[in-house]
């Protein structure tokens, strides 16, 4: 699976501070939740982007290196509401206990780039934006646990699934941001 | 508008002369915490450059108007940007550090330690940013270099200026914190490159084996280098006694600390070798010998004249690492609670063995940060 990004920024050959100056400029005009792939050759760009995203409130997803080019993936901060509308929730610990249960399907609705760098091994990836068109891939006979980073996107996904007739849907709160169990990366 | 810049050479002089200076370090907090430009009368402010992209208003009142401000970053690009912004904001006393911490890490300063018997001279090359020390012994038209760094042109040019021919290049041990320039200098000048064979078992090139009791003559005067086999930091670590006056201890003994035995992954095996060297072999030497180590860790270890040197007798009195009676306590000190290992130390070792040959830019990246070869 390729790591998908909504936008590409070419900062190859540019020295510090330009990769960050350009990233900051680009990300300002993007939609919340969009994923940017920043290509850079400056080795220092990784530590700097990690620190900058942290201070600016964006989400650093990870970096892969291909033939001397560093590809950094960053997700623009989104205003994730605290309010959860879907009534049925489980916490991380309950998810962990039920993961081995054959009747449980774990659906990860984060962006594919987020999923690529870190996900729970049993999870199936369908980003929130693709849920409508791919809803048929989900087995309606199972207990569907929906996870994202903080419980906000998964809340929306749960509502959508309930509308479409799924009756055993659980939002995992808070989700990956606090997950301490086993994870996998597509790149390792 | 043209901004003002300061070279690492000029900043090194200010650091050594303990001048007052305000250092605005615009690298990330982690990088700053890990390693910075040290001097007694420098004051510091660390704000990452990416937090200043929208303007410098927020830090203006934290900056002095009455003393010089030096802006430092990793490579010299971001500091130019911030210096320009400060310049626009009306600060006239701001200088961008040319080449940033990378240039700072590489800067080498030759300092004369002393004259030797029969007209010879001994120089210490202080790599102030990383705390590495290397040496050149000069006598009657010939020179020997000990523990040279990667910036080989500095030594080669220095020898040229002195009108001497480099005949021998030594490494006291296989370094883990910096890339040795020894092999390159030897190839370039036709000098012999010496390594302790026990550290060189995996090297991919030819070398002259340093054996205990070896004597090498530089020039035709009486300057001899005795290889004094002293395992501890690495199993092959070797010390030299130069001109019966100077003890080059490599990474075994420093001014205010001792060598860590774990960088080749064998702390437990080598602890007692290290103790044996420090507490027996060195103890048997004359107290009058002047110790010249391969590193310093803190600016306090520098003498007024910029050299790093102290009598062995004084170290036996004052260096904590030489004054631990109890063997178990000693073992604990050098194997537990060790500081973090030097940046990329495995890759640096492999480079020094000739197993890998990274591009220059990569070598600079590998060497970033302090040397971290000591325990205190």
From TrEMBL, chain A:
<dbReference type="InterPro" id="IPR050229">
    <property type="entry name" value="GlpE_sulfurtransferase"/>
</dbReference>
<keyword id="KW-0808">Transferase</keyword>
<dbReference type="InterPro" id="IPR001455">
    <property type="entry name" value="TusA-like"/>
</dbReference>
<dbReference type="Pfam" id="PF00581">
    <property type="entry name" value="Rhodanese"/>
</dbReference>
<dbReference type="InterPro" id="IPR036873">
    <property type="entry name" value="Rhodanese-like_dom_sf"/>
</dbReference>
<feature type="domain" description="Rhodanese">
    <location>
        <begin position="100"/>
        <end position="184"/>
    </location>
</feature>
<dbReference type="Pfam" id="PF01206">
    <property type="entry name" value="TusA"/>
</dbReference>
<dbReference type="InterPro" id="IPR001763">
    <property type="entry name" value="Rhodanese-like_dom"/>
</dbReference>
<dbReference type="GO" id="GO:0016740">
    <property type="term" value="F:transferase activity"/>
</dbReference>
<protein>
    <submittedName>
        <fullName>Rhodanese-related sulfurtransferase</fullName>
    </submittedName>
</protein>
<dbReference type="InterPro" id="IPR036868">
    <property type="entry name" value="TusA-like_sf"/>
</dbReference>
UniProtKB/TrEMBL annotation, chain B:
<dbReference type="InterPro" id="IPR051682">
    <property type="entry name" value="Mito_Persulfide_Diox"/>
</dbReference>
<dbReference type="InterPro" id="IPR001279">
    <property type="entry name" value="Metallo-B-lactamas"/>
</dbReference>
<protein>
    <submittedName>
        <fullName>Glyoxylase, beta-lactamase superfamily II</fullName>
    </submittedName>
</protein>
<dbReference type="InterPro" id="IPR036866">
    <property type="entry name" value="RibonucZ/Hydroxyglut_hydro"/>
</dbReference>
<dbReference type="GO" id="GO:0070813">
    <property type="term" value="P:hydrogen sulfide metabolic process"/>
</dbReference>
<feature type="domain" description="Rhodanese">
    <location>
        <begin position="17"/>
        <end position="113"/>
    </location>
</feature>
<dbReference type="GO" id="GO:0006749">
    <property type="term" value="P:glutathione metabolic process"/>
</dbReference>
<dbReference type="GO" id="GO:0050313">
    <property type="term" value="F:sulfur dioxygenase activity"/>
</dbReference>
<dbReference type="Pfam" id="PF00581">
    <property type="entry name" value="Rhodanese"/>
</dbReference>
<dbReference type="InterPro" id="IPR001763">
    <property type="entry name" value="Rhodanese-like_dom"/>
</dbReference>
<dbReference type="InterPro" id="IPR044528">
    <property type="entry name" value="POD-like_MBL-fold"/>
</dbReference>
<dbReference type="InterPro" id="IPR036873">
    <property type="entry name" value="Rhodanese-like_dom_sf"/>
</dbReference>
<dbReference type="Pfam" id="PF00753">
    <property type="entry name" value="Lactamase_B"/>
</dbReference>
């Amino acid at each position: 699976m390729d790591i998908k990004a909504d936008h590409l920024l070419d900062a190859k050959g540019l020295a510090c501070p330009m990769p960050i100056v350009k990233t900051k400029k680009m990300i300002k005009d993007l939609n919340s939740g969009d994923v940017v792939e920043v290509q850079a050759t400056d080795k220092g760009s990784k530590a700097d982007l990690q620190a900058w995203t942290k201070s600016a409130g964006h989400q650093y997803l990870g970096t892969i290196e291909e033939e001397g080019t560093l590809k950094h993936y960053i997700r623009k901060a989104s205003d994730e509401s605290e309010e959860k509308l879907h009534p049925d929730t489980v916490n991380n610990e309950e998810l962990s206990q039920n993961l081995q249960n054959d009747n449980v399907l774990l659906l990860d609705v984060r962006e594919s780039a987020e999923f690529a760098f870190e996900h729970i091994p049993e999870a199936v990836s369908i980003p929130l934006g693709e849920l409508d068109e791919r809803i048929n891939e989900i087995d309606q006979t199972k207990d569907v646990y929906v996870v994202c980073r903080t419980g906000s996107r998964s809340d929306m996904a749960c509502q959508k699934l309930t509308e479409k007739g799924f009756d055993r849907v659980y939002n995992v709160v808070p989700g990956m941001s606090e997950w301490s169990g086993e994870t996998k990366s597509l790149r390792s | 508008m043209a901004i003002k810049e300061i070279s690492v050479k000029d900043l090194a002089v200010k650091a050594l002369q303990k001048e007052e200076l305000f250092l605005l370090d615009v690298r990330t907090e982690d990088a700053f915490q890990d390693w910075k430009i040290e001097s007694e009368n420098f004051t510091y402010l660390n704000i990452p450059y990416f937090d200043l992209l929208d303007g410098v208003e927020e830090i203006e009142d934290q900056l002095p108007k009455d003393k010089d401000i030096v802006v430092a970053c990793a490579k010299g690009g971001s500091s130019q940007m911030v210096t320009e912004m400060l310049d626009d904001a009306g600060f006239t006393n701001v200088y961008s550090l040319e080449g940033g911490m990378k240039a700072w890490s590489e800067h080498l300063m030759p300092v004369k330690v002393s004259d030797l018997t029969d007209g010879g001279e001994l120089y210490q090359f202080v790599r102030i940013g990383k705390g590495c020390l290397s040496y050149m012994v000069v006598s009657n038209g010939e020179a020997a270099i000990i523990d040279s760094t990667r910036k080989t042109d500095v030594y080669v040019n220095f020898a040229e200026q002195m009108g001497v021919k480099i005949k021998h290049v030594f490494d006291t041990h296989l370094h883990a914190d910096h890339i040795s320039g020894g092999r390159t200098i030897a190839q370039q000048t036709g000098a012999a490159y010496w390594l302790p064979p026990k550290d060189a078992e995996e090297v991919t090139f030819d070398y002259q084996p340093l054996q205990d009791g070896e004597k090498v003559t530089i020039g035709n005067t009486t300057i001899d280098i005795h290889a004094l086999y002293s395992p501890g930091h690495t199993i092959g670590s070797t010390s030299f006694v130069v001109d019966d006056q100077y003890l080059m201890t490599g990474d075994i003994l420093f001014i205010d600390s001792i060598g860590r035995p774990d960088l080749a992954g064998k702390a437990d095996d080598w602890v007692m070798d290290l103790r044996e060297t420090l507490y027996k072999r060195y103890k048997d030497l004359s107290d009058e010998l002047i110790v010249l180590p391969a590193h310093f860790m803190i600016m306090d270890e520098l003498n007024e004249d910029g050299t790093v040197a102290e009598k062995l007798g004084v170290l036996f009195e004052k260096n904590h690492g030489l004054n631990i009676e109890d063997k178990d306590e000693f073992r604990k000190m050098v194997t537990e609670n060790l500081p973090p290992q030097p940046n990329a130390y495995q890759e640096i070792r492999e480079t020094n063995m000739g197993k890998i040959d990274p591009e220059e830019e990569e070598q600079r990246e590998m060497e970033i940060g302090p040397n971290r070869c000591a325990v205190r």
